[in-house]
Structures are given as C-alpha cells and as structure tokens.
Amino acid sequence: MVYDVNTIFQIAGIGIVVAMIHTVLKQMGKEDWAQWVTLIGFVVVLYMVATIVDDLFQKIKGVFLFQG
C-alpha cells in the first residue's frame, strides 16, 4: 500500500478530536470516561502505525530476499 501525507493528517485528526472530547468530558466531571476515550484513541492510532510498520517490514523483507 502507498502511504502519503493523508495518513499523517488522519492520525493528527484523531488526536485533535480525542483531545477535544477528553477536555469536554473532564470539564463535565467525567474523568473516567475521558481516560477511556483517550485510551481508545491511542489504541486506534497504535493499530494504524503498527499496520504501516508491518507493511514496511514486508517490503524490506521482499527486497532482501528478492521476492515480489
């Protein structure tokens, strides 16, 4: 897969939305829900990054083992 600047903007957008929701929930006194939202946002971004890194390692493996 080809990754470009859109992936960076998606990760940044998720971060901004999660930060806004976290702030609103914390101001409402729902600190536990705010932490859950932050954790879920972190897991989503971590999954996106792990997928990209996995693709990178597959490409590197293909180059060094001369596989297509």
Structure description:
This protein is an all-alpha fold and 68 residues long. It has one domain. It has helices at 5-27, 31-64. Helix 1 runs antiparallel to helix 2 (31-64). The longest helix has 34 residues, at 31-64. It starts with a helix and ends with a helix. The relative contact order is 0.12. The mean pLDDT is 91.
Summarize the structure.
By secondary structure, the protein is mostly helical. The chain is built from two helices and no strands.
Q: What keyword list fits this structure?
A:
about 70 residues, mainly alpha, elongated, single chain
How many strand units? 0
Radius of gyration: 17 Å
Query: What order do the SSEs take from the amino end to the carboxyl end, as H and E?
Result: HH
**Main β-sheet, in a few words?**
none
CA distance, first residue to last residue: 14 Å
In DSSP terms, counting alpha (H) and pi (I) runs of 4 or more, how many helices? Answer: 2
pLDDT averaged residue by residue: 91
Strand content: under 5%
Helix share bin:
over 70%
Shape: elongated
Outline the secondary-structure elements.
Elements lengths: L4 H23 L3 H34 L4
